[in-house]
């Protein structure tokens, strides 16, 4: 690209820009839409900025691969080894991503904050399906993480199951649409699910939560987001 200071203006332009790198370095490109959403929202869309990140990935790719292998030793499914995976991981740990997340959280309070959390958690499940394909294995990450050395108690697993189920209720969706209120126990359950996402040590969960917190949207049309979410999660409850 002739001008490394001119922002990349579209998903298609980003795909063309990145294709030379994956061809040269023997990698698969992966979910370009996820990369585009992050670089667009966080204003990391200048070629020079991306070239610096690509160079860092090239230099530490072997170490990253070994670390990822160790981190996923006890998990059921790992992230695909694509350029998108490496870039999302790099951006996830960036100052820009942390700043954006903090701004969105600190600029909201009360019901508005809860509505934001509901949308982020819904979109986290949608991103999980977009990137990995939502399966019962990933449902188990929430109700009883398989990578924990000690088994969780039945009560804790039931509580986590209830927190996820609360996100699927009509009352939660109506509240998100500003058409009603939620009871204290419902708000507590949703806050509990938020903590499960925020504190989850599984690398794929951290990735999709980063995307959702930033406000990134995947392959789903906005008007069908809830319908797709129900189709993904309800069969697992």
Q: What descriptive keywords fit this protein?
A:
237 residues, 0% strand, 67% helix, mainly alpha, 12 helices, single chain
Mean pLDDT over all positions: 83
Uncertain segments? 69-76, 146-150
Largest sheet: none
Distance between the termini: 48 Å
- Structural class, from secondary structure content? mainly alpha
Domain count, please report it: 2
The helix content, as a percent range, equals 55-70%
Q: Count of helices?
A: 12
Report the C-alpha radius of gyration, rounded: 19 Å
Count all strands and give the number: 0
Order of helices and strands: HHHHHHHHHHHH
What best-fitting shape do the alpha-carbon axes yield?
globular
Beta-strand share of residues: under 5%
Structure description:
It is a single chain. The protein has 12 helices and no strands. The chain is mainly α. Helices cover 67% and strands 0% of the residues. It has helices spanning 11-25, 32-41, 47-71, 83-92, 95-106, 110-131, 136-143, 154-167, 170-176, 184-198, 203-214, 225-233. It folds into 2 domains: 11-93, no CATH class; 109-236, no CATH class. The chain is globular. This is Fungal-type protein kinase domain-containing protein. It comes from Aspergillus cavernicola.
């Amino acid at each position: 690209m002739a001008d490394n200071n001119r922002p990349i203006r579209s998903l298609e332009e980003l795909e063309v820009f990145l294709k030379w790198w994956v061809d040269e370095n023997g990698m698969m490109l992966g979910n370009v839409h996820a990369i585009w959403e992050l670089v667009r929202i966080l204003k990391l869309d200048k070629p020079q900025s991306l070239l610096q990140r690509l160079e860092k990935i090239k230099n530490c790719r072997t170490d990253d691969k070994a670390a990822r292998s160790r981190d996923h030793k006890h998990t059921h499914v790992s992230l695909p080894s694509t350029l998108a995976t490496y870039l999302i991981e790099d951006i996830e740990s960036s100052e820009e991503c942390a700043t954006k997340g903090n701004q969105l959280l600190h600029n909201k309070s009360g019901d508005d904050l809860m509505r934001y959390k509901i949308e982020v958690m819904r979109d986290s499940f949608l991103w999980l399906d977009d990137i990995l394909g939502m399966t019962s294995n990933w449902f188990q990450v929430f109700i009883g993480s398989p990578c924990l050395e000690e088994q969780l108690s039945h009560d804790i697993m039931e509580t986590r199951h209830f927190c996820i189920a609360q996100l699927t209720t009509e009352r939660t969706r109506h509240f998100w649409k500003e058409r009603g209120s939620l009871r204290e126990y419902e708000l507590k359950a949703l806050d509990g699910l938020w903590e499960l996402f925020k504190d989850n040590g599984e690398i794929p969960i951290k990735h999709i939560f980063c995307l959702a917190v930033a406000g990134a949207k995947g392959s789903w049309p906005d008007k069908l987001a809830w319908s797709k979410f129900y189709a993904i999660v309800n069969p697992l409850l």
